TrEMBL record:
Entry superkingdom: Archaea
Record Pfam families: Usp
InterPro entries, per database record: Rossmann-like_a/b/a_fold, Universal_stress_UspA, UspA
Protein name (database record): UspA domain protein
Start and end residues of each UspA domain: 1-154
Organism: Natrialba magadii (strain ATCC 43099 / DSM 3394 / CCM 3739 / CIP 104546 / IAM 13178 / JCM 8861 / NBRC 102185 / NCIMB 2190 / MS3) (Natronobacterium magadii)
Assigned keywords, A-Z: Plasmid
Similarity remark: Belongs to the universal stress protein A family.
Length: 154
């Protein structure tokens, strides 16, 4: 049975570390690079939530596509061995990309069935320092609610 790994990616360095870990640890697996579009995310520059229109969703999907493309491009730039030679193992892996809309933890857990994956490899965005022993809330919720094994990469 071949493995299928869901790798949620939010553009963070921790998510990129999880992506690299999945590729290196499961070189023959089907990798699904996934981005959760959170309609309720408000950034410091936002005064209020954007209206949830079809145009908004199209823009979010375009941004997600660019984010996932950048993640793969950054991996290719890093995909060289210590002698500067291209890492052939990484260049042979086929990567699928998917998005989902909703609360990130819930969408990630639901994506397991939708993408027919049998494991999740997720980056941890928890706090640093003494509080860093705790996982980030999304990773923690995914671990608690997932029906498949979850690997959290720091």
């Amino acid at each position: 049975m071949s493995r299928s790994i869901l790798v949620p990616h939010d553009g963070s360095t921790n998510a990129q570390a999880a992506f690299r870990y999945a590729l290196e640890t499961f070189p023959n697996a089907r990798i699904v690079l996934f981005h959760a579009i959170d309609p309720f995310e408000v950034t410091a520059s936002d005064e209020q939530l954007a209206p949830l229109t079809d145009d908004w969703l199209d823009e979010q999907r375009s941004q997600a596509e660019r984010l996932l493309e950048d993640a793969q491009a950054n991996l290719e730039l890093d995909g060289h061995d210590d002698d500067g030679n291209r890492n052939e193992r990484l260049s042979r892996v086929e990567i699928e990309t998917e998005t989902g809309v909703g609360s990130p933890a819930q969408v990630i857990v639901a994506a397991v069935d939708e993408t027919d994956t049998d494991q999740i490899v997720i980056g941890n965005r928890g706090q640093s320092g003494a509080a860093g022993a705790r996982m980030g809330s999304t990773a923690e919720t995914v671990v608690k609610r997932s029906d498949v094994p979850v690997t959290v990469v720091r």
